[in-house]
Design brief:
251 residues, alpha/beta, TIM Barrel, 8-stranded parallel β-sheet, globular, binds phosphoenolpyruvate
Length: 251
Amino acid sequence: MRQPLVAGNWKMNGTRSSIQELLDGVKGGMGEVTTAEVAVCCPHIFLADVQQQLQGSAVAWGGQDISVHESGAYTGETAGGMLAEFGCKYVIIGHSERRSYHGENDQTVAEKFAAARKAGLVPILCVGETLEEREGGITEEVVGRQLDAVVSHCGIDTLAEGVVAYEPVWAIGTGKTATPEQAQDVHAFIRARIAAANSAVGEGMQILYGGSMNAGNAAELLAQADIDGGLIGGASLKAADFLTIAKAANA
Ligand code: PEP
């Protein structure tokens, strides 16, 4: 039985006071979230505040990116050890915004996955195709390649220590959600691809869906057999919406 996980990706949003209000709201509603694990991945500048507010609560937290390096002259980067020092459990790896705006390729993403594990963090590995790739009929080729890069760099047993998030790029922040069937098809493909390397790892892998998941569409998406939770962008910035999604993951 895979535990559902609902993780918020705040991206570059929030202020010290707005996140306090947001986290108060999320913590306040956690009593009704009985099955799912809930986490928020915040801008790194807010980590100390988030740690202070969430320590001892049922909500975990994490970063949005990690350096491949452990320390040194890498201006603006955050090392895995730094995220761990601020109590992070998770770190998002290879988000499509990092891949497209910061030139992260499959190799870099694989190295980041390894760096996260080395620091004791649980990487949330984002994979997904662009609209052009979907329309070109190469969704599975792209997603398979993104997964294989991590498996060949880190090994299947290390992949098993992370979480995969299927995030079709065309659905992120656009309001266009994959239909439950479209999402389920790719999730089943991802699970089969991992299972081909190791069946127990494939069966146990938590595979989240991300891409305009919201309070209105979450239940249907989360009801799919191979969807084990969500990586939530915009809707994670409103406590009530985020909690509705987390409760939908209870079922
Ligand atoms: C994301 O940023 O990972 C994401 C899924 O964003 P949104 O929910 O806003 O589409």
